[in-house]
Amino acid sequence: MTGGSGGSHRLFPDARVLRPTTKRLPQHTRSHNRALVLQTLYSSGTQSRADIARITGLTRAAISDLVGELMLEELVVETGPREETRPGKPATLIELNRTLFQIVGVDLSDADTFTGGLLDLDGTILDREEIALDGGTGERALDLVLQLCERLVARASAPLLGIGVGSPGIVDSQGNVETAPNLGWTDLPLRTLLAERFDLPVIVSNDADAALLAEFSFGDTDNDMMLVKAGRGVGASLLLGGAPLVGTMNAAGEIGHVVAGSAGAPCVCGKNGCLETWVAVPRLTAAFEHRGLDWRTADGLSAGHDILAEAGRRLGLVLAPVVAALNLTDVIVSGPERLLSGAFVDAAVETVQLRTMRTYTGDLTMRMTTLGEDIVTRGAAMTVVSRVLGFS
């Protein structure tokens, strides 16, 4: 899964399934079954111990042991007896303590503004903050990230589970930003810097990786899917069989610097005509402005229809072999909806279908995310929940 101006951080280096649904055999770890109980309560709501045993396939003794442990940690609470119409002692219901922790989620993918939120375990944004980038790069951009996190941490009204950051660029499994050209970062140990500053668990991931996790957790599908993130740069994330696709060099899904045709403008990476030069939001905005148009207005958007159609066609050129090779039917687009939801998406789908066998790609659905501009913030927070608590 990659995004931003390119690259990838694997949220889960072992590419484990994000949402456990079946029990493990005795030789597997207790932590999986613990996560399975939490996932069941997170997804299914209030349940009895017997309900959880039935859903998970774990024994009642194992459930009693795990629930007891989780209750001691206050992650699970009893809510009282179930209303029963049958004779006998009613079952005691339990639920996830969704207000126990809060999480800081930070989105660094926008060209002009760093944004963040304070969220609960359900991914609800309780408070928001933003800070203007004003062209800042390098140390200045890092200082703005620290300021943003500091403000959000100070507003927490419950213990913080951690800080999640979605960054453009290549981010390794340790949370180091190997390169983020648009921010002027190279080999930046962002996770370490934030963890030392705030003494909290910190997960730094690529912005498209974070967006995909948000879509998986809160969106309209849990099928195999690809998410294309258009913002400061362009990138994609892939989820196959319930697990992130990793790739040998942690770069599966890297599309932003694939050359999308023979013509094209110079790219920050040194090549000409990379997909980013066609689809990144600043590039699209500049193309509109070059013709005296503003895509934020109805007239400007209509007059620039051909700009968006061409950008969508270039995306389709890059996506066609990926969609065909992986037999994908669900592609989600994240970015400014007004800009990308019409001519852009239509042209992308048409191009994919023209360049592949419709027998296998005729059912392709490419749509805008329903999570709007908060997708990276919510996904960054969920990387913390998934890594620390084991569910999503």
UniProtKB/TrEMBL annotation:
SUPFAM superfamilies: Actin-like ATPase domain, Winged helix' DNA-binding domain
Pfam families (alphabetical): ROK (PF00480)
Superkingdom of the source species: Bacteria
Homology family: Belongs to the ROK (NagC/XylR) family.
Protein name: ROK family protein
Organism encoding this protein: Nakamurella flavida
Top-level taxonomy: Bacteria, Bacillati, Actinomycetota, Actinomycetes, Nakamurellales
